[in-house]
Design brief:
The structure holds two protein chains of two kinds.
Chain A lengths: L2 H30 L6 H32 L10 H8 L1 H32 L5 H9 L6 H11 L12 H8 L13 H28 L2 H9 L4 H12 L1 H16 L3 H6 L9 H11 L3 H32 L1
Helix pairs in contact in A: 1-2, 2-14, 3-4, 3-14, 4-8, 4-11, 5-8, 6-8, 8-11, 13-14
Chain B lengths: L14 H12 L10 H25 L3 H6 L14 H8 L8 H32 L5 H11 L5 H25 L9 H23 L4 H9 L4 H30 L2 H6 L9 H11 L4 H21 L1 H11 L4
Helix pairs in contact in B: 2-13, 4-13, 5-8, 5-10, 6-8, 8-10, 9-10, 10-14, 12-13, 13-14
The chains are: A mainly alpha, B mainly alpha.
Amino acid sequence: MTTADLLGKILQVVMGLAVFAAVVGLLIFLIDKAPKKGRDYWQLTAFLLPALLLLVIGLIYPAARTTGLAFVDRSGAFSLANFEWMFTQPQALQTLGNTIIWVILVPLASTTIGLAYAVFIDRSRGEKFFKAIVFMPMAISFVGAGIIWKFVYDYKSSGRDQIGLLNQLVVVFGGQPVQWLQTSPVNTFLLIVVMVWIQTGFAMVVLSAAIKGIPTEQIEAAQLDGTNAWQRFTNVTLPGIRSSLVVVVTTISIATLKVFDIVRTMTAGNFNTSVIANEMYTQAFRAGEQGRGAALAVVLFLLVLPIVVYNVNVLRKQREIR
Amino acid sequence: MSTTPADLPVPGSKLGAIELAEAGTKTHRVKRRLTSRTATIAALVIAVLWTIPTFGLLISSFRPEELIQSTGWWTIFQNPGFTLDNYRDVLLSGSQSSPQLGAYFVNSLAIAIPATIFPLVFASMAAYAFAWIKFRGSGALFIFIFALQIVPLQMALIPLLQLFTAWLRPGQNWLHDIVPIIPEQNYLPVWIAHTIFALPLAIFLLHNFISEIPGEVIEAARVDGATHGQVFFRIVLPLALPAIASFAIFQFLWVWNDLLVALIFSGGTQDVAPLTQRLAELTGTRGQDWQRLTAAAFVSLVVPLIVFFSLQRYFVRGLLAGSTKG
């Protein structure tokens, strides 16, 4: 990077921010000077317009167009070929199957481990420190996490010293080193481990907060009744954190459906590890198959749709209560 | 929904209330040892398992190349060796084959800062309109925007890229002609894309917060003749600052850690591409250069880790509130 490059970059950022500030400032200044008649409408427009305009151009129109693209072939005629490809070709079916494995295993494992950990460390000495350790992966990028774990899974041919921890363990127990990321189907599960490693911290923090929200009287009452720890957990703790459990599971499910970076970084979707979000990128932006990419995006949307509907209903109820 | 001003309410959960309860019991709570011996051991095992991968990478990034490639990092005591060469190589070396992360680090910052400010300003304006300007259809429109937040990014990528190529590219070229120091490939598409994708969630969260500002405050100002512009700048923004800060941290990290948007809109050159994109590229082409990959990974992790350890409280709030994004 030369000094000129650096100057150019700084100039871009400064100009970008200055132009932005000028536009927003001018907008709000002008609107305060709007004609008295209908001033409220002018002001409303000024406040809402930038966001709405961006959403229409950048999200609503593209989403509609993507849906359209999914249903036409290359000549532009209506066709279901893209979906036919998705549900008949072995490679595409593998992608769908992998996505289903991901979306079952990741929420299940992250929530279970996160909940167990939250219960174990609850009110213990050093709780904050224990929390920070498991929550930390949440702060770093999926790409960084991918590299961290790729190093764990690294392979050297047998006879040489292993530098990947997993193969070292295999060797210590007398096995032969394995090319983990190239070996299907175990590689998909190893990628899932990375996502679980990241999402467990999220589950743990939310559930830990929920556990602390359970009134101590309930726990004490159960204790007086002579219950053991497991009974208290299933009869008092679990019902008490149900709504938080739902939030955790749905949130992690959505994140998992859209997982892209981990697969992209660690295997690029090769060796039968592809998932919908990665295949969408590969088809649309690497293979030039926009129709197939669009169809995959539509399927992704349909998969998250039930969760959207559920969340919107919750929001509606909240607003009615107010 | 919540009383502490910095709480971002989360849909469908009772986090705000829970955090308060936690604060309340803390005072009279006697810290005791972990529940039982089995639980202690299980917790320790999880904690160790969660730390080891990152720890191994960090250790390795300071080991000389030949040691990384021939011995495991756990043998550091049998095969000692410490060097900063890996970091020097990835950050400062100008040779063609080295990662040259300096430029990409600047790009990550240059992308993330404006891409945090732009959506927050637009979103707080829209949130103000939804909360304090009465108009027909306000409720329905708001719920519609809330629903938009879960439209996957993937739905928008292809057409948005086409739009940018058709309409934004000529503008970028024109800018390059006038100010030659700004390359034809500039940050504009990435900024705009990130701004758009952040809006639905940002509007929703900031609205929750801004709508809880006491109505008397705003009505009093309005009666005194303050315009909406004045109310927004002098009353709403200062009061909403804690919520804005929480969301800003989340958005900053989201952009810093993003790969997908960068891959599609940055063009992939040193002029624009952020660290994540460079890292992903390196793992693909130089997947066995562990002396470089380990150091490069840590260069990209430094900023999020600093944010995490220094602003943990805000970070947790922003993250919990924003975790459905994307």
